[in-house]
Amino acid sequence: MNVSVVLFTSDLRLHDHPALRAAQDGSAALVPLFVRDDAVAEAGFTAPNRMAFLADCLADLDGGLRARGGRLVVRSGDVVAQVCQVVAEADADEVHMAAGVSGYARRREERLRTALEGEGCRLHVHDTVITALAPGAVTPSTSDHFAVFTPYFRHWSQEPLRDPVAAPRAIRVPDGVGSEAIPSRTGLSGLSEGLARGGESEGRKRLTAWLRADIASYEDGHDDLSGDATSRLSPHLHFGTLSPVELVHRARAAGGPGAEAFVRQLAWRDFHHQVLAARPDAAVADYRTKRDRWRSERAAHEDIKAWKKGRTGYPIVDAAMRQLRHEGWMHNRARLLAASFLTKTLYVDWRIGARHFLDLLVDGDVANNQLNWQWMAGTGTDSRPGRVLNPVTQAKRYDPDGEYVRRWVPELAGLAGGAVHEPWKLQGLERAAYDYPDPVVELSEGLARFRAARDRD
Ligand SMILES: Cc1cc2nc3c(=O)[nH]c(=O)nc-3n(C[C@H](O)[C@H](O)[C@H](O)COP(=O)(O)OP(=O)(O)OC[C@H]3O[C@@H](n4cnc5c(N)ncnc54)[C@H](O)[C@@H]3O)c2cc1C
Questions:
Q1: pLDDT tens, position by position, 329-388
Q2: Structural domains in the chain, sorted by start
Q3: Residues 419, 400: contact at Cβ < 8 Å?
Q4: What range(s) does the Photolyase/cryptochrome alpha/beta domain occupy (predicted)?
Q5: What value of ipTM does the predicted structure carry?
Q6: For ligand 1, what atom is nearest to the CA of residue 336?
């Protein structure tokens, strides 16, 4: 019988894990391996919030494996060198892992395949672990990926999903394969105060509660900023503590308009992943509309600083940016508003905003973050790249009573109802009573600058 290694990456779970199942089938023993990859740290993708969530996930995965007679093996260093070393220690014949979509993930697979071939060991890469449908599973007739969501979603919806795979009952890890200590949150600094807890157990609890009680109101409530009525499953999807295939199946089984709307959002996730898989350079380069006339970072320095600190003078934008800092998470409508404000009203390069989000977001994800930023900046897949979200109109629509703003911008808590969205309308002493900045730019001025620059491009 064979010995297999399962290399966990963005798939830190035991339920519905086809790579884990394939590794177990036909193997006498397997090594569940996670490598703290030097390249990820060198690329600056080790934001403290995500490192803390990751530590929770690894501890929980180890706990789940131990309950089945196994354990997690953790190593640090170059991922290829570490996998080869574990293969040698375990005398393994096969390595199984989930297919990734980023340029880095693809290169990692190639390097691993070549290195393992030299060791007489086969690499098996499994689709539909990280996404519900594999990138490229549906394509238009003229391209290798969909650049517009609506037709993608039509095809995506018609495509049959594989059945979920049961979690393993027992796992035997071969003797003689050592592990570093499982990382923990202790000692990590710079964490957001309201950071969520990670781990498959936590994710499954949240999913069950979501399907039982909250999904029904998702269609009506998902844009309501103060209602906070979205699933908050994004970090679990990012770290793979929940399977997107299982989520789609369970949401469809729940049924109703809320579930349909939720499944549509999961399809957005697959959509961005298939764009990135086909165009890995979209993580850093404009996907469609080349815009090289952004204001220079130096010229926009004060505006960028105000945006990051939540001191732009636009309460809804500031509330969004403070939620991000406090929780390491932000409501989708708030992300849209914050991104539109930076790229269109302030006319600042989307990469600056995307980097800041990745520094703080617990769900910070190359496909979802970079491509949503590009969508809002008008350089990506939005079919209306000129769309600008007016922060005041949007605030009145999605936070009509001003509760979201009062929650995150406490210095304006004394302003009742929708008046909180336009503090600049206050006069004299009343205005002076609030320690809150004037708007960094008039909206009409920002709009004129954006349109002039766009028309020049
Ligand atoms: C500028 C910007 C940056 C973003 N950065 C990220 C990011 O780094 N990581 C991330 O996971 N999402 C990102 N999103 C997408 C979206 O905002 C979050 O997925 C969502 O807010 C997470 O909250 P939730 O789990 O409660 O979502 P729900 O509304 O409950 O949706 C369920 C799931 O569907 C997926 N989803 C929802 N909306 C989108 C979307 N627009 N694009 C892709 N997938 C979506 C997510 O996986 C989400 O968990 C970004 C959006 C914008 C506008």
A1: 999 999 999 999 999 999 999 999 999 999 999 999 999 999 999 999 999 998 888 899
A2: 2-127 (3.40.50.620), 131-161+201-278 (1.25.40.80), 301-456 (1.10.579.10)
A3: no
A4: 2-131
A5: 0.99
A6: 53
